[in-house]
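[SOLVED] Need 3D model of a two-part complex

Original post:
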Amino acid sequence: MTTVTKHHDTGSTRGSGPMIEAVDIHKRFGHVEVLRGIDLEVAAGEVFCLIGPSGSGKSTFLRCINHLETIDAGNLRVDGDLVGFEQHGNVLHALPEKKIARKRAEIGMVFQRFNLFPHMTALQNVMEAPIRVRKESRTIALERALALLDRVGLADRRDNYPSQLSGGQQQRVAIARALAMQPKLMLFDEPTSALDPELVGDVLQVMRSLAEDGMTMVVVTHEMAFARDVGDALVFVDGGRVVESGHPRDVLTNPQHPRTQSFLSRLG
Amino acid sequence: MILADEEHFGQPTALTGKTNDVSVPVKVVAVRRYGTWALGLAVLAVLAFVVRAFARANIEYSLIPGYLVNRSILTGVAHTLELTLLAMAVGLALGVMTAVMRQTHNPVLRGVALGYTWLFRGTPLLVQLLIWFNLSIVFKNLSFFGLYSTPMNTLMTPFVAALLGLGVNEGAYIAEIVRSGIISVDDGQSEAAAALGMPQSLTMRRVVLPQALRVIVPPLGNEFIALLKYSSLAYTISYTELLQSANKIYTTNFKVIELLFTVSIWYILLTTVFTVFQQILERRVGRGHTRPTEGIGRRLAVNLMRFRR
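Solution:
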C-alpha cells in the first residue's frame, strides 16, 4: 500500500488557507448562464460533495477548478492561487498554456466516462503523465504505478488494455492514473454514474480509502450514501447557484430549502 | 404452456396440434434465380469475346516475361518506387503539419493550412507537375538570403519536379485524412490528457495522433497506392519512371501493348505487396481495439478498384 503524499509547494500564500475558494463564480455557454454566482470554500483534507439535478452546473463548476472551463466572472482560487490568471496590481493576466498545464498537473481528475487512453495498457496509462509531464525516471514511475494499481486492486490487470476491463476496473485505473501525479486535490465528476450497479461498490471503496488518507476531494455525485458516510461538507446546487450547504448528514436527512427537499424526495 | 415443454421444442407442428410424421424426408427447393444465370452467361460471352480479340490480335505475349525483367524496365520500377516512397514522405510530413495547423487556435496558421489544401486540391495534378517543371520561368535563381544561389534550371530536374509535384499535392489530400482522424478521437481523451497536465503538443503526439492512426491508416494506404499509379504522370516531364522506361522501348520497336501489359503487371504486383504491408500496419495501430480489421481480400479489392479525382 502506498500512502498518498501531500504535495508541498514553496509559494508563500499556499498551504495555509482553504484548498478551494470560490466567490461569485459565473459561467455562460452562449446565451445560457450555467453558473450564476457560486460561493463555496473547500478546506484541505476535506471530502466535499456537490449534489443537484442534471444541468444544475455542478459538473461545470468542477471543470472550472482545473481550468477545463474558463470562468466569466468571479474569484476562484486553488491553494491560494487564482485559476487561469495571474494578478499584477489591478490587472489579471491570462496564464500561458504551459503554466496552466503545470497547475493542472497538481490536480487529479476522474471523469464519468473514465477517458482512459485506449491505446495504452493499464500500467502505461498510469505511467504516462509522470514520465512525460513530470519527467520522472521509468523505474520510479513504474514502482509507483505498480503500487497504485495494487492499491485499487488491479495489480493483476496491469497489462490489459482498457477495452479488456470492466467499467468499474477502468474507473479504478483512472483513479490510479490521477493519483500517479501525486495531486494535492482530486476532482471526481460523477465517477460512478456510467457504471453497472454491481460495479459501483469497488470504485466507492477506493474513494473511501483515499478520503481516509486525508486527500482533499471534490465529488460531484448521485451516491447519497457515499456523501452521507464519507463527506465532510455538502452543497446542493440548482440553477447555477448553491441552494443549501452544510454537513452531509444534516442536509441529506433534514433539508431546509424546499428545492433540496423536493430533489431528495425524488431520489426516494 | 406447450412452448415451455422441452419435448415439443423445435417441432412447430406440435403447437398447432396437428399430427405430422417427421420421418418422411422433405425435399427443399431453393428459389430459382433464372435472371442470375442469364446474366452470368452474358458476362461470360463478353469476356470470351474480349479474350479472343486480344488473343487474335498481333500481340507477342511471349515477349512479356522477358520485358518484365528487362534492365531498363527494372530501373523504371526502381525509380517509380523511389519517387512514390519519397513523395509519400513529403506528403505525410506536409499533411500531418497541415492537419495539426487546422486544429490550432492560431487564425494565421489555420488560414495558411486552408489555403494550401484549397489550392492543391483545386488544380489538376498534371498541371501542377508541369508548373513545377517550368518553375524557372518564374524564379530564375534559387537563393537563400544571398548566401547560396543556384539557377532553378539545374535544380528543378525531372525527378525534383516530380517529387515536389506529387508530394505537395499528396500532402493536401493527406491533411484531410489526418484531420478526419484527429476529429474522430473523443474529446474526453484531450480533456483527460489536459487534466493530467499534458500541454497541447504532447497531447497531440502521445494521445490524439496514435488513436487517430487507426482511422488514418486505411485511407492512407489508399493514398499510397493511388500515388504509386499517379507517379506515372511524371512520364510527361520526362522522368524515367516505369511508364517512361516502357515508352522508350516501344517508340523504337513498336511493341506497344506488350510493354503496356508489362507495366500493368508490375503495377499490380507492387499494389499487392503494399496491400499486405498495409494489413500488417493496420493490425499494429489497432492496439487496444478488439474489433478485427477487414480481410485481405476486401482490402485488395478496394485498392485495385480505386476511383478518385
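Edit: Confidence is low (pLDDT under 50) at residues 1-12 of chain A.
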